[in-house]
Structures are given as structure tokens and as C-alpha cells.
Amino acid sequence: xxxxxxxxxxxxxxxxxxxxxxxxxxxxxxxxxxxxxxxxxxxxxxxxxxxxxxxxxxxxxxxxxxxxxxxxxxxxxxxxxxxxxxxxxxxxxxxxxxxxxxxxxxxxxxxxxxxxxxxxxxxxxxxxxxxxxxxxxxxxxxxxxxxxxxxxxxxxxxxxxxxxxxxxxxxxxxxxxxxxxxxxxxxxxxxxxxxxxxxxxxxxxxxxxxxxxxxxxxxxxxxxxxxxxxxxxxxxx
Length: 237
What we know:
With 237 residues, this protein is of the alpha/beta class. Helix content is 45%, strand content 16%. It has helices spanning 3-11, 14-25, 68-82, 89-99, 102-115, 130-142, 185-200, 215-221, 227-236, and strands at 33-39, 46-51, 54-60, 150-153, 163-166, 171-174, 204-206, 209-211. The strands form 3 sheets. It has a 3-stranded mixed beta sheet with strand order 1-3-2, covered by helices on one side. A 3-stranded mixed beta sheet has the order 4-6-5, with helices on one face. The chain is elongated, with a radius of gyration of 22 Å.
């Protein structure tokens, strides 16, 4: 980016950035009325709507202090999605590199922790106690050294997300669909073991890259006894 363009960006309002990007993507369409608002979202969420010659953009207030080049990248991403255009890797990488900065990740985690509402039903299910299973797996695979996070069954019987680890709230949530006498305990143990590995192997952020399952994660995951059988049982679910 040249010095002249950088200087222009510094003096543009957020609305002006969206107007300019709109003209770049839709040069034959008159620029609509543009309203950009920063809202108290839980995370770095953004929404855009174009209706009756009015473009409304709602952006997380976590991004309010983001520099102009990041606002431009987000404008390119949101407007490209709105008009169903391919998103340039250049803009996507610029935005992702900003979100992956350690200070920004810390800020977003603090927001999720302060504003996010986590519905937890506790570790004791109808058929299984997650704390007991965690402690057993901790002894078998981690020498009992892994600190136990909060554990909970999910509010619903999700079949698409069988488990997840929420770092902001330090909680592992397991789908209630696994709390059944018809589900093999091996399948439940594997899902909980998988989520425990997320504590051991945090998400790797490098530049624009965000790797949830690192090579070290994948290698240790395969150490689970009857790994392939557990995967097969879960596919059946």
C-alpha cells in the first residue's frame, strides 16, 4: 500500500471506507446511505444489510479501535459476502492476522468471558458422570496432572457437535446425546479425551493461520486405544 493511500485511509471515517469499497465492488450503483454502528457483541461479530437504498453495518465494539486498514479489510469481506463475490485472500489474511494478534485474542477472550452466557447443566447426567470419567482419563493418559476444568452436558442432544472446549469459560461441554445407555462408553471417553487434548494443545495462531488441531494434537489423539473403533461408533451416532 502506497504512502498516499495510507494517508487517505487515516482521514476516512468508517462510513467513508464502506462507501469507497461499495463503489469499487458496484461501480454502476449509486452509493446508498451508510450507517455503521459498533455494538456490544460477545465476540468479533459483524453484520451487514442492504435494504431500500440503506446499507446498515453492525460491528463488535471490540473492533472500534482497529486501525483503518483493518476496517477496510472487514468492509471488503462483508460487502463481498453481501454481493456474493469471492473474498480476496489479501483482505481475508489482513483481517485474520489482526484477530490473531495476542493482544486482540486476549481482549476477545475477556469479552466472551464477561458478556457470554454459558448454559451449563453440570457434569452429572442420567447415565454418566463427566467428572468421574475425566478423572479416570486424566490418570490413564496425563498422569493425573491435568487441572480439571468445568464439565457439563449440553442443554440439547446435538448430533453435529458432540463436544467442545470453551477456553474463555474454561469448560468442556459434551453433547447430551452421549449420555445414553445405548452409547458405548468408549465413544464417550474418546470425545472427552479429544476435548481434554484442547487443554494440552491450545489453538496455534501464526499470522493469518489459525490451526485448531495441530500436528501434535493429531498425533496424541491417535494414541487413544481403539481410536478407529471409537470414530466408527461416533459416525453411527
